[in-house]
Design a protein that fits this description.
By secondary structure, the protein is an alpha/beta fold. The chain has one domain: 3-Layer(aba) Sandwich (Oxidized Rhodanese, domain 1). The chain is globular, with a radius of gyration of 14 Å. The termini are far apart.
């Protein structure tokens, strides 16, 4: 990976993500379609790891299947959510499914906490560019087709 030297399953900060996006590494937003629609990183794909159900957020049974259909297991991939928790869960599921180069956006879109409780600034919180444009081939509904 030219210009960036990361372990295969790194927690990325916003600047590291920016470099990978510039190199064409896909970003998989694992938030709900509603969260994605409200604003996301440009060119992000949306496959939620959890969906809203009658009991709150519930596992998305299509998550791994859709990821396997659209993202090769041997290629690098970055996952992210609102604060970093769901994307760590998604990364774990993807690694179990045979992926080996899955990074997590620490702090996600809105910011979160590291394992020691320190603040991690999220992508949108850092003033990085977001969009609410919904590209059909990148939305959950579009990727399910």
């Amino acid at each position: 990976m030219p210009g960036v030297s990361l372990p295969p399953v790194a927690d990325l900060d916003n600047e590291e993500l920016e470099k990978l996006l510039g190199q064409g590494v896909p970003y998989l937003d694992v938030r709900t379609p509603e969260e994605y629609s409200a604003g996301h990183i440009a060119e992000a794909y949306n496959v939620p790891v959890l969906l809203r159900g009658s009991a709150g957020l519930e596992p998305n049974p299509e998550f791994v299947e859709l990821a396997l259909r659209h993202f090769p297991t041997g290629k690098e991939l970055v996952v992210g959510c609102a604060a970093g928790g769901r994307s760590k869960q998604a990364r774990s599921l993807l690694l179990q499914a045979g992926y080996s180069l899955v990074h997590n956006l620490a702090g996600g879109m809105n910011g979160g906490r590291d394992p020691f409780g320190a603040k991690v600034v999220g992508w949108a919180e850092a003033g990085k560019p977001t969009t609410a444009e919904l590209e059909p081939g990148r939305t959950y509904a579009g990727l399910k087709k």
